[in-house]
Amino acid sequence: MPAGDLGYPSPPPSQATETPVEEDDAWVWAQIKAEARRDAESEPALASYLYSTILSHSSLERSLSFHLGNKLCSSTLLSTLLYDLFLNTFSSDPSLRAAAVADLRAARVRDPACVSFSHCLLNYKGFLACQAHRVAHKLWTQSRRPLALALHSRISDVFAVDIHPAAKIGKGILFDHATGVVIGETAVVGNNVSILHHVTLGGTGKACGDRHPKIGDGVLIGAGATILGNVKIGEGAKIGAGSVVLIDVPPRTTAVGNPARLVGGKEKPSRHEECPGESMDHTSFISEWSDYII
């Protein structure tokens, strides 16, 4: 969906002095600050909070680092330590900043309850958990595993989202509601994926090594779905709410039920052209699935 369709002006055209990523980052940050100013004026009770969390900062990574530090700190894990950790990580890796912007856009476009970019930045625990996980994953790849695991524990405690720091997650991710999401150590989640609450990407309990699901780009996983084992969910596939998936799901197909079955049958499954991870279409398959529809 173009930015203009959300009631905001479209980002300015690229200039030679800025890369498209830097330009997009700057545009989204400008929108966030404008929204925060508007909200501070309309709701004075939030003015101090909005100033300290957004308006006093010079960049998205500084605001996000400050906010995450305050959210995840404890009596023994100080907010100042976490702020420095987050800021150093975001500042040193442009791909993390680009992923955060893509995740903000994903929430704003796909979730009708997301009223603004600043609302997502401040209040969406799925967004915040995902950004904190990216830092934990970076620490994991740098062999700073005790710190990565400590951060993972705080993310789980505070946001009720349990993502192992070794798990690989793409960009343009929407964790919608996010409560109860569990993603195992060797799981891989592609780009532009939408995952609802109480989704498990887990192991079978019997395997070692590479034992968790691989989720392709553009996949939509409905609330309460469970995907177990080193199985592949193909690009643009749709997993219905409450489904239990134990084998591969082909690209652009829909799997529903416990155990999950392909809509249209395994020999000739129904295929869709849209990208469900972006369209958020949960129900278009119903007429093909059953002749008894309530």
Automatic annotation (TrEMBL):
Pathway: Amino-acid biosynthesis; L-cysteine biosynthesis; L-cysteine from L-serine: step 1/2
GO CC term (a single one): cytosol
Residues in Serine acetyltransferase N-terminal domain copies: 28-132
UniProt cross-references to PROSITE patterns, sorted A to Z: HEXAPEP_TRANSFERASES (PS00101)
CDD domains: LbH_SAT (cd03354)
Catalytic reaction equation(s): L-serine + acetyl-CoA = O-acetyl-L-serine + CoA
EC number: 2.3.1.30
Identification of the protein by name: serine O-acetyltransferase
Organism from which the protein derives: Theobroma cacao
